[in-house]
Amino acid sequence: MKKKFLTGIVAAIVFANTAIAQQPGIKRTELQRHDLSIPGHETVQARIDFAPGTAFGKHKHPGEEIIYVLEGLLQYQVEGKAPVTLKAGDVLFIPAGTVHTAKNVGNTEAKELATYVVEKGKPLVVLTK
Question: Dihedral of the CA atoms 51, 25, 79, 64 (nearest 10)?
């Protein structure tokens, strides 16, 4: 009984995180999630697909985000820094808790591979104003 209850709670948390992370024209696909040797932390790897002209609004993560652009042109606005536009093969590091945005500024679909090193049990994406 306890196992089913805990499984239900975990499923609800995953669903809530996915619902927050999905925005029109943007698809987030979690590829893998693993506990780290650092207690209370995990790594999550996801592919994020951006339709032309779409943007992921202001948000932050409970840990570091390491971005690798797979396709297209993505513009990132990281709090306290000038906007930067990256193309396929470019990388970006975003410190824990830093508010940022991402926008596809190209004419084709853009894709990034995002690797997060985060505190376990916290929402992966926190939308901000």
Answer: -90
pTM of the model: 0.81
Query: Of 83, 58, 61, 59, which is closest to residue 73 (Cα–Cα)?
Result: 83
Beta bridge pairs of residue 75: 85, 103
**Reduced to 3 states, what is the DSSP secondary structure of residue 129?**
coil
Number of helices (H), then strands (E), in the chain: 1, 10
**What mean pLDDT do residues 46-65 have?**
97
Q: Which residues pair with 116 in a beta bridge?
A: 44, 65
- In what helix (H) or strand (E) does residue 4 lie, and over which residues does it extend? helix 2-21
Domain 2-127, classified CATH 2.60.120.10, yes or no: yes
67, 50, 29, 46: which is closest to 105 by C-alpha?
Answer: 50
| pLDDT confidence tier of residue 23, bands split at 50, 70 and 90 | confident
Query: Which residues are paired to 111 by β-bridges?
Result: 49, 71
Other C-beta atoms lying within 10 Å of the C-beta of residue 93: 10
